[in-house]
Amino acid sequence: MKFIVIFIILFTAHLQYRLWYGSDGSIPQIKAYELRLEELKKRVEEKQHRNAALYAEVEDIRQGQDALEERARDELGMIREGETFFQVIEK
Question: What are the backbone angles phi and psi of residue 85, rounded to the nearest 5°?
Fold first, then answer.
């Protein structure tokens, strides 16, 4: 009977050690995994927002020339034939 009690105590101590200090499946490791998961979820959400914005921009360009013309004017400084370009310098 003593052997069974000692075995149960040692077995319980072993399980408690693995739970609190073990390398695989311990409470601190689970907390670290949860933090990492939250970081990854935030990154995925940011990437999804970025992808949605890029998709909307691509759709705008596909739909009409207005968005394409706007980008050419803003980013490349292009003007149409017959237009006059005025540059305003403010002090």
Answer: -95, 125
DSSP character for 21? H
* Per-residue confidence (pLDDT) for residue 79, from 0 to 100: 83
Residue ranges covered by each domain of the chain: 2-76
Sequence-separated contacts (24+) of 11-18 with Cβ below 8 Å? none
- Closest by alpha carbon to 30, among 18, 14, 12? 18
Longest dimension (CA), the chain: 104
20 three-class SS: helix
N-to-C CA span, the chain: 95
Question: Against a cut of 0.85, is the pTM above it?
Answer: no
pLDDT in tens, 20-47: 777 777 788 888 899 999 999 999 999 9
